[in-house]
Amino acid sequence: MSTTIDEAALSSAERIKKESLGLHGPLAEEVGNDATHLSEEAKQILKFHGSYQQEDRDQRRERKKAGLEPAYQYMVRSKLPGGTMTAEQYLAQDDLASRYGDGTLRVTTRQGFQFYGIVKSDLRGTIHALNEALITTLGACGDVVRNIITCSAPASGTVRQEISEWTKRLTAEFLPRTRAYHEIWVEGQQVTAHEVVDDPLYKDRYLPRKFKIGFAFPDDNCTDVFSNDFGLVVIADGDRLIGFNALVGGGLGKTHGKEDTYPRLASPFAFVTPDEVVEVARAVIAVQRDHGNRENRKRARLKYLLDERGMDWFRGEVEAILGRKLAPYRPVEVTEAHDHLGWHDQGDGRWFRGIWIQNGRIQDHGDLRLRTVLRRIVERYRPDVYLTTQQNLLLVNLSPEHREEIDALLLEHGVTPPEELSQARRHSMACPALPTCPLAVAESERIFPEVVGEMEELLAELGLADETIAIRMTGCPNGCARPYTADLAFIGRSLNKYVVYVGGNLEGTRLAQPIADLVPLTDLVSTVRPLFERYKDEREPGESFGDFWSRVGAEPLQAAGVR
Ligand code: SRM
Ligand code: SF4
Question: Which residue's alpha carbon is at the smallest distance from atom 3 of ligand 2?
Fold first, then answer.
């Protein structure tokens, strides 16, 4: 698409964005009315404000039979740049999970928190309370720059600290300019005359699609930086930040059976200094804004624009905006990724403790009283709380003399120490899927712990229990738990059936490939057993499962191939 817009060909989302007049839409009027749900227009605009209208899909059939409307509810997503929050902010969100939500807090793969099961009449109360705690939800969803991620593990006096500040700075730069958010959620007004604020970056139609920015370090790509539209790999000389290797065009979503949609790792783009990073990011976003596909949302991410027009064209457009040439990408490899679990010295006399959270779900369930113990620890020791992109949580700035007490508390509440977790479980991730996600075609979070359990048995039997293997599951091909960069992934295909992928790596530098399609849930582990047997017999010393299959080339296990 060129800058001349063919209005008739645009997707309906484009009309809704434009007619919203700066994200007001009919939202302000509808949020306060008595209906249990929103109109299509308001629902779309609500996303930009950080919330999705959902329904409890477990109740769908019964309610339909009884002639009832769907069990409408809302998911609210906190936007936490770099995943950081204070103890007070953690406690405020923990309160909200019970006051308005379903009693759980979900750490997302982009360092946000999600609240579920909020009824429409409590939506304003929830978002208002988050803002009172100085947490925004603006732009947590929608066609704008999403939560900006980085490795949150603190290391005093190093560039890591500086990068955490960068996530906040870029967030402030790329927040949509709108009065609507403040009016609806903060002031709680029912506004009808909309005051439209000029937004030089997003203009009146925002971006063609979501836009993701992430930071990483060459020796720690725990953020999966290559999955972002715009990635920044830190280039440092010791503790001095020199600049960033910028990457463009990452994105993981695809649609089953549609060959023109695919996961793609971001490509090397340019070297940028700290002084120019905001300007370059802004120019990259502007090129996507002006040239990205606004007719077909399935092809609207930056990755497709790049593949259609080529890197030279893209760089030329960015350079034309900047009015100068960009410096070439530096030959620096990304080689490691860490999960930051357990105790670590921050280098300033204080320590942080990384806590593994199954699929990011903070809740009390059976013997595991994770939500209770986290609240107790945060109330008593007042640590800052940082979220990781692997759905885990770090308790930060703790005094070393509290280490034993904190470990004892965690144990008492049923939290397994990281060193006792199997490697397979420790590196596993699943997306929420059913019953909240409207796009799920198969289960994920709810059944994944059992699948991992079966995998643990298989790996133990083969003597592979100590291998670091990242296993991920999603309920559809959109890729929310980043399955396409995992060693092994199960991706929902239809009810109880999955596509099996192998060959990614923990460092996030390689895409996995599909090797079996429509595999029933009950056959997942038996399907991959031969792959692990061969890996055990033929691997080279130190070779990971994903590296092995990438080297030998995983052929489709089914004659008909996989899509
Ligand atoms: Fe996602 C849509 C959950 C990270 C790719 N994602 C959704 C929605 C909102 C479904 C919807 O559109 O109604 C899911 C809400 C389900 C629920 O009930 O909570 C959802 N995505 C999530 C989270 C919560 C998964 C998790 O396990 O933590 C993550 C929230 C991150 C955040 O805090 O902002 C989440 N989503 C991702 C990632 C991973 C990442 O960004 O590192 C991806 C792959 C990278 C990418 O964007 O390409 C991802 N989500 C998608 C897509 C596919 C986009 C595409 O280009 O095709 C969709 C569907 C869409 O946008 O139409 C989607
Ligand atoms: Fe929903 Fe699919 Fe994302 Fe899972 S991967 S949360 S099923 S959109």
Answer: 480
